[in-house]
C-alpha cells in the first residue's frame, strides 16, 4: 500500500500541489474505511503537535507576546476540530449545491490537505533554523496553498466545474463559521480577543 511508502507519499503530495484534482482523485480512489481515516487523522494531529512543540521551543517569541506553555497542544486541538468541521462542511454544503461526494471522501481530502500542510510545517521548521526571516513568507505561502488545495479538492469531490464559484463558496462558508463561532463563544462567556 503506497500510504506506507514515504517516497510514494511525497511524490503524490508534490503532484497534488501541481495537479490537486488528480491528487484528490488518487486519494478518493483508495476508498479507505472511516476507522482507518480516523486513525490517520489522529496520527497526523500527533505528528503536527510534535512539530509545533519543537517550533515553539526554538522560535523567538514575538515582541511583547509570551507564548504560553501548551500552546502547541491547544493549536493542534483547534486544528483537529476545524479539520472535522471543514470535512463536514465540504460534504454538506457541496451536497446542498448538487454535489455527489460523501463524508468519507471529504474527510480523506481534508486529511490529505493537512498532510501536505504538515510537510510545509516541516520545511518551515528547517527554514527557521537557517533563515528565520523567511518563515513569514512560508506562512503566507501555506495559506495560499490551503485555499488552492481546498478549492480544487472540493471541486473534484463534488464534480463542480467552476473553481471560482467553489472559492467564493469556501470564503462565504468560512465567514459564516466565524460568525457562528463568535456567537457560540460569546454565549459561553469566552472572548476571542
Estimated radius of gyration: 17 Å
**Which consecutive residue ranges, at least 5 long each, have pLDDT under 50?**
none
Mean pLDDT: 86
For the sheet with most strands, the description reads: none
Overall helicity? over 70%
List the SSEs and their pairings.
Blueprint: H1 6-18, H2 20-29, H3 34-58, H4 71-96, H5 103-130, H6 135-158, H7 163-187
Q: Short summary of the structure?
A:
Helix content is 78%, strand content 0%. The chain is mainly α and 193 residues long.
Keywords:
single chain; 78% helix; mainly alpha; 7 helices; 193 residues
Description of the molecule:
The N and C termini lie far apart (45 Å). The protein has 193 residues and is mainly alpha-helical. The chain is built from seven helices and no strands.
Amino acid at each position: 500500500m503506497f500510504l506506507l511508502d514515504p517516497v510514494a507519499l511525497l511524490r503524490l503530495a508534490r503532484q497534488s500541489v501541481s495537479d490537486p484534482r488528480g491528487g484528490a482523485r488518487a486519494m478518493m480512489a483508495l476508498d479507505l474505511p472511516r476507522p482507518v481515516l480516523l486513525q490517520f487523522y489522529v496520527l497526523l494531529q500527533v505528528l503536527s503537535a510534535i512539530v509545533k512543540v519543537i517550533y515553539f521551543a526554538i522560535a523567538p517569541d514575538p515582541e511583547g507576546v509570551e507564548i504560553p506553555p501548551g500552546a502547541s497542544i491547544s493549536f493542534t486541538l483547534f486544528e483537529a476540530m476545524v479539520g472535522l468541521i471543514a470535512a463536514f462542511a465540504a460534504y454538506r454544503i457541496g451536497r446542498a449545491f448538487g454535489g455527489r461526494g460523501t463524508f468519507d471522501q471529504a474527510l480523506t481530502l481534508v486529511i490529505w490537505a493537512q498532510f501536505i500542510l504538515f510537510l510545509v510545517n516541516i520545511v518551515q521548521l528547517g527554514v527557521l533554523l537557517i533563515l528565520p526571516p523567511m518563515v513569514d513568507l512560508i506562512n503566507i505561502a501555506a495559506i495560499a496553498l490551503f485555499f488552492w488545495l481546498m478549492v480544487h479538492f472540493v471541486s473534484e469531490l463534488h464534480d463542480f466545474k467552476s473553481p471560482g464559484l467553489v472559492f467564493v463558496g469556501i470564503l462565504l462558508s468560512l465567514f459564516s463559521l466565524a460568525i457562528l463561532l463568535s456567537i457560540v463563544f460569546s454565549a459561553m462567556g469566552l472572548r476571542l480577543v
